[in-house]
Amino acid sequence: MPVIELKIPNLGESISSVTFSKWLKPDGSVVGMDEPLCEIETEKANQELSADSAGKLVWVAKEGEDLAVGALFAKIDTDAGAGSSSSAPEKPAEAPKSEPAPAIKEAPATTQQQNYATGTPSPAAAKILAEGSVNPADVAGSGRDGRITKDDAQKAVENKSAAPAPVAPAAPAPAPTTPSVAFSRNDNRQKMTRMRRTIAKRLVSAKNNTAMLTTFNEVDMSALIALREKYQEAFVKKYGIKLGYMSVFAKACAKVLLEMPDVNAFIDGDDIIYHDYADISFAISTPTGLVVPPIRNVESLHFSDVEVKLKELAAKARDGKLSLEEMSGGTFTITNGGVFGSLMSTPIINEPQSAILGMHAIKDRPIAVDGQVAIRPMMYLALSYDHRVIDGSTSVTFLVKIKNLIEDPITLLMDL
Question: Are 141 and 152 in contact (CB under 8 A)?
């Protein structure tokens, strides 16, 4: 058939509908095979859909429309594409040989010479003008019939060098912003993005469907800060990336998660599923919302591996290029509100996981050290957990273990 129908593909078991974000090609344009046509937004990430064949694009879906998987979003007229792609400029028809070509009146020789020579540099002049970056059209020729001579070219180059450099026009002053009107009552209604709607739905579900509690502790970051300062240069030299706090917290969590499997488990119906690995999800803020892609088998990775993978995921998340596979999974989550200045918070569980660790800003605070008051860089830690799976004593013990590993990171490095 000359017309091909394009439908929303199956993007995974959990995705039944998408939001049609925007067209990348105009309606009626001729597109090539596998050329990106549009962008759709799923619950987890944005994705481009491409043409299955070359041809003329016919829009069906509208931007901002919600479409079910399998819904028609475009058509491609392959006949139109073939015609457009195979069309070539036609050769002009030759005059019939039986009819003589009309006589052309020859222009006077002086006129032909004048048209050819005027503004044309001699070979030597052309070289001088090219080396001096002077346009022949800007030079008046003094030679026969207006030809540009070598002297003309040299003078033009000299004049250009002597001329003051053109002054760039001043940038126009920014247009004055319209001051906000006092006591304004204007409203601006915008449709929520699919990702924001999904986030909202899952957060409400976590609050309503789990017995969620939060326990707190604080950690002295002095030893970890000193460790980073001492070995940062050598770490960067060997691995090509900086040692951050997140990889150390991730490795500490992975170690304790395997020691305390309840925190690394989740409920499935009437069963509890335990894991002998730690796939840790990391909360990353993007312009379209919060995403939590996991790094798999953190317990088996080096600190540098975690840093490299985390940097890669963060870049993809902010560019909207995370794949559905990269967004799925995870047995535990870490979120760091401290990068935004948060001092303390109660993070919400990332279902179906049973716990999430919240890191916060590092602040110098007075604390008691060996009976003396000392100023130390302190961080509050928060562990939100599902009380159906994790007991209170388990959650407290988990945080204490994390605290001890961070305050004495050598024990983490030596796996003690």
Answer: yes
Q: Quick check: pTM over 0.90?
A: no
Query: How confident is the model at residue 154, as a pLDDT?
Result: 79
Q: What is the pLDDT of residues 259-270, one digit of tens each?
A: 999 999 999 989
State the Rg of the chain over Cα.
35
**Which token pair is 408?**
């004495």
Annotated active-site residue 387? The verdict is: yes
- For the chain, list the domains and their CATH numbers: 3-84 (2.40.50.100), 207-413 (3.30.559.10)
Closest by Cα among 309, 310, 312, 351 to 330: 351
- State residue 357 phi and psi, 5-degree precision: -100, 130
> Which candidate in 145, 305, 387, 408 is catalytic?
387
Among 220, 391, 408, 415, which one carries the catalytic annotation?
391
With 0-12 CB in 10 A as exposed, 13-18 as middle and 19+ as buried, what is 402?
buried
279 is catalytic: no
Q: Cα 150 to the chain's mean position, in Å? A: 56
Which residue pairs, CB below 8 angstroms and at least 24 apart, start in 293-301? 293/317, 293/322, 293/326, 293/327, 294/328, 294/329, 294/330, 294/331, 295/250, 296/329, 298/250, 298/251, 298/253, 298/254, 299/251, 299/254, 299/255, 299/257, 299/258, 301/251
